[in-house]
Amino acid sequence: MAESTDMSLLQEAFKKFSIHGDTKASGKELNGKNWAKLCKDCKIIDGKSVTSTDVDIVFSKVKAKTARVITFEEFKKALVELGPKRFKGKSEEEAVSSIYKLIEGKEPANVGVTKITKKGGVDRLTDASKYTGSHKERFDESGKGKGKGGREDLVENTGYVGSYKNAGTYHEKLQEK
């Protein structure tokens, strides 16, 4: 009875790892990359008795000759291959049971995934209120970009050069005389 619950937990972990990183995956087949990730995340690879090379060799051994993926049945065969290698000194059944325990209920870890940083120079470089010159005009007071209006020089056909302080005062000077 405990064996069936172990298999359901094992199958759930298999499914989670098989769809990891692949939007088109059905969850019924595990590719080599995700097999290696499963072995690494579930601590089957210990660097001493089981290495990533061992994991790759076992994957190649259990898969069909022309296939690039393994099914759940082939997955179980691969674990039977790795069990005695990982747990030396235990019987084959105990080793396989121990390797199942390592995998049950686990899912892919996203440790090491790139995160957005806001430290040191990044804050200073992305703060629009500190921009000067032509870049300053690309953002409003709140720091929100003005879009195309902030990127293009908009031509004003007033007859005056840009940024002329006394623009529009010519007619007033004529009336004063």
UniProtKB/TrEMBL annotation:
It comes from Acipenser oxyrinchus oxyrinchus. The keyword Kinase does not apply. It holds the Pfam family p25-alpha. Belongs to the TPPP family. This is Tubulin polymerization-promoting protein family member 3. Residues 126-155 are annotated as: Disordered. Residues 134-154 have a biased composition (Basic and acidic residues). GO terms for molecular function: tubulin binding. One of its GO terms (cellular component) is microtubule. The keyword Cytoplasm applies. Its main location: cytoplasm. Keywords: Cytoplasm, Cytoskeleton, Microtubule. InterPro entries: EF-hand-dom_pair, TPP/p25. It is found in: Cytoplasm, Cytoskeleton. GO terms for biological process: microtubule bundle formation; microtubule polymerization; positive regulation of protein polymerization.
